[in-house]
């Protein structure tokens, strides 16, 4: 059956509950991230009874889409093609893939593997309340959940501790993770909380920890990134482009070899835009997925569909994806493979 046989019959919303494995603490800028919550998803149904659902990219008006032929809204080979339907990027991809009886990653081209390497993105500053034993416990919990690689938040001296003490704790936490998990990829994320000099002091303290990447150490300033590139000399990736990115600037920095991994958010940038961005990106991709576990599933389909994404961010929590020995394992069920909540 083709999309041209379907007309949008109804659009409704549903609340999607999510939870983390534990209460997630602070990062260099923000307070506690809580233990879960609820978000609104959209459900799209066609005149022939096909259904798709997913998170919206932003607020939008579904009214003008009722009665529209589905083929005017999304092209399976390109993504959403009508600006009025852009906010329904994920529901429409889910719907189109259901009609075509394909998983989304196959509809995207299947350029990557349906077994997607995934790190835990949930190691925050819980040591501020429970000491390094809290970091140890969080790493163990995420490992038991199925993660084998870990991203650690750093930058405690930006807001929560004095600069020297915070830097020392950042180094201690990183060295602890490496000691406990010698085979893991260790990623670190500063949430723009560092100066160049402060970051270099941190790197001095963890130089034997073999960091996989450094994420958002400071704002995307070309001179600072050039200085960082000279210091790293290719040994550790630089990942950036998450926070309110100027996408053109991020792509230019990637062209210059100053960013190795582009992080535009899986929802904030959107699946259709990622489909357009990936072919011109002169770097690897790893769409930011923090917030809820469903975004990890979306990032996995993007990675398996478009390729060029060697590792994705895992939000530690049950219900949205299957994790096996450090990899999200995607099913061959149509769409994103999830029933309506």
Automatic annotation (TrEMBL):
From what superkingdom does this record's organism come? Bacteria
Keywords per UniProt:
Magnesium, Metal-binding
Q: Name one GO biological process term.
A: amino acid catabolic process
Molecular function terms in GO for this entry? hydro-lyase activity; magnesium ion binding
Required cofactor(s):
Mg(2+)
Say yes or no: keyword Lyase present.
no
Mandelate racemase/muconate lactonizing enzyme C-terminal domain spans which residues? 132-235
The record ties this protein, via Pfam families, to: MR_MLE_C (PF13378)
**UniProt-listed InterPro entries:** Enolase-like_C_sf, Enolase-like_N, Enolase_C-like, Mandel_Rmase/mucon_lact_enz_CS, Mandelate_racemase_C, RHMD-like
Q: What is this protein called?
A: L-alanine-DL-glutamate epimerase-like enolase superfamily enzyme
Provenance organism: Kribbella jejuensis
């Amino acid at each position: 059956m083709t999309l041209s046989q379907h007309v949008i019959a109804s659009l409704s919303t549903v609340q999607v509950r999510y939870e983390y494995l534990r209460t997630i603490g602070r990062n260099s800028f923000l307070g506690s991230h809580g233990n879960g919550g609820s978000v609104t998803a959209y459900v799209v149904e066609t005149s022939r009874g096909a259904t798709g659902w997913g998170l919206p990219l932003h607020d939008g008006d579904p009214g003008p889409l009722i009665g529209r032929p589905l083929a005017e809204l999304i092209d399976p080979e390109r993504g959403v093609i009508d600006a009025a339907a852009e906010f329904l990027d994920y529901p429409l991809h889910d719907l189109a893939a259901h009609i075509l009886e394909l998983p989304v990653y196959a509809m995207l081209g299947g350029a990557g593997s349906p077994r997607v390497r995934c790190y835990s993105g949930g190691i925050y500053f819980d040591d501020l309340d429970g000491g390094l034993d809290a970091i140890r416990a969080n790493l163990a919990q995420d490992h038991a959940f199925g993660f084998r690689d870990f991203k650690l938040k750093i930058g405690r001296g930006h807001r929560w501790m004095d600069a020297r003490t915070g830097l020392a704790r950042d180094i201690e936490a990183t060295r602890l993770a490496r000691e406990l998990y010698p085979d893991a990829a260790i990623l670190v994320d500063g949430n723009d909380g560092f100066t160049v000099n402060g970051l270099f002091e941190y790197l001095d303290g963890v130089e034997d920890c073999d960091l996989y990447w450094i994420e958002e150490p400071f704002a995307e300033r070309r001179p600072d990134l050039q200085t960082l590139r000279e210091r790293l000399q290719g040994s550790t990736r630089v990942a950036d482009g998450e926070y309110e990115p100027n996408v053109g600037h991020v792509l230019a920095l990637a062209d210059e070899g100053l960013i190795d991994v582009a992080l535009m958010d899986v929802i904030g940038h959107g699946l259709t835009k990622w489909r357009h961005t990936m072919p011109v990106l002169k770097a690897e991709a790893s769409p930011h997925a923090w917030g809820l576990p469903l975004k990890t599933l979306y990032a996995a389909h993007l990675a398996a569909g478009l390729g060029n994404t060697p590792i994705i961010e895992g939000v530690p929590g049950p219900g949205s994806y299957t994790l096996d020995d450090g990899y999200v394992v995607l099913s061959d069920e149509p769409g994103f493979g999830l029933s309506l909540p």
